[in-house]
Design goal:
This protein is mainly beta. It has a single domain, classed as Jelly Rolls, CATH 2.60.120. The chain contains 5 helices and 17 strands. The protein has helices spanning about 20-25, 160-165, 190-195, 235-240, 250-255, and strands spanning about 5, 15-20, 30-35, 40, 55, 60, 70-75, 85-90, 100-105, 115, 135, 150, 170-175, 180-185, 210, 225-235, 265-275. It starts with a strand and ends with a strand. This is Glycoside hydrolase family 16 protein. GO terms for molecular function: hydrolase activity, hydrolyzing O-glycosyl compounds. InterPro entries: Beta-glucanase-like, ConA-like_dom_sf, Glycosyl_Hydrlase_16.
Length: about 280
């Protein structure tokens, strides 16, 4: 984790979570590494009083990027009621510098949601050739309660239990002059060029999500971005939709019991970023 900063301030999305610094995360067993994998998880041993935040981890890359091909290979991601895991990129001046949500779901949802959050003027084109379902077209974070312009992946192996049952998979985000595109591949369908370390997005077929330069200039609405992993609980999204998610009780009571977080782990094989040389 030497290339990552640990965020230990209050959750900006108002989650019922306590983000630990690196030392406390190591000592409490919330992060771990082996020769080939990194694990980040939510505390799954401590009983809490109602309203007490649960320990978790949020990390950001020390390096920032102004474009490129970002690849995440995971065995599993956190899933279950009250959980809100995400893998995303964000600029230092939000929302003007933009945010790209590559992997995100709440309350154990079986479908990944990919979203752009920007300043005013960026929109999603309904004409983009994508495999996902467009949920909203205005990316402006200051309207529609910051829902952004989201796209839903109908593939149940793109998130949660389905992702784990598929043996994990790969998520790829390309940010270049043509816009932003996101692909997901279940483990059995990962292109050979990704596995060989020579990714060639031109041969991957239609992406799950795309925001084209014609309606959202990728270098105007997106500035230098760091890469973020986090798992929060309840909060502005998972908490607000908890009652309609099919989960039991309330989000706050769900957080109290550590047994509810036995599947609240990121198990990451690698993160790779490819940038064009000058």
């Amino acid at each position: 984790y030497s290339s990552w900063d640990f965020f230990s301030s209050s959750d900006p999305t108002n989650g019922l979570v306590n983000y630990l610094d690196a030392s406390d995360a190591w000592n409490s067993g919330l992060i771990n590494t082996t020769a080939s994998k990194a694990t980040m998880k939510v505390d799954d041993t401590t009983w809490l009083a109602q309203g007490q935040p649960r320990n978790s981890v949020r990390i950001s890359s020390k390096k920032s990027y102004g474009g490129g091909l970002f690849i995440l290979d995971v065995d599993t991601m956190p899933y279950g009621c009250a959980l809100w895991p995400a893998f995303w990129t964000v600029g230092p001046n939000w929302p003007e510098d933009g945010e790209i949500d590559i992997v995100e779901a709440v309350n154990g949802g079986s479908n990944n949601q990919m979203t752009l959050h920007t300043g005013s003027g960026c929109t999603q084109s309904n004409n983009s050739p994508i495999l996902g379902q467009v949920l909203s077209t205005n990316c402006d974070a200051d309207v529609n309660s910051n829902s952004g312009c989201g796209i839903l992946d109908a593939d149940p192996s793109s998130s949660g239990a389905g992702l784990q049952q598929a043996g994990g998979g790969v998520f790829a985000m390309l940010w270049d002059g043509s816009g932003v595109s996101i692909w997901h591949f279940a483990r059995s369908a990962v292109p050979g060029d990704i596995n060989s370390g020579n990714p060639s997005p031109g041969g991957w077929g239609e992406p799950k999500a795309q925001w084209s330069s014609g309606t959202c200039s990728p270098y105007s609405y997106l500035q230098q971005q760091t890469i973020v992993f986090d798992t929060t609980l309840c909060g502005d999204w998972a908490g607000n939709v908890y009652g309609s998610s099919g989960c039991p009780g309330t989000c706050e009571t769900q957080v109290m019991d550590p047994n509810n977080f036995q599947t609240a782990s990121w198990v990451v094989n690698y993160v790779a970023v490819y940038t064009e040389s000058s």
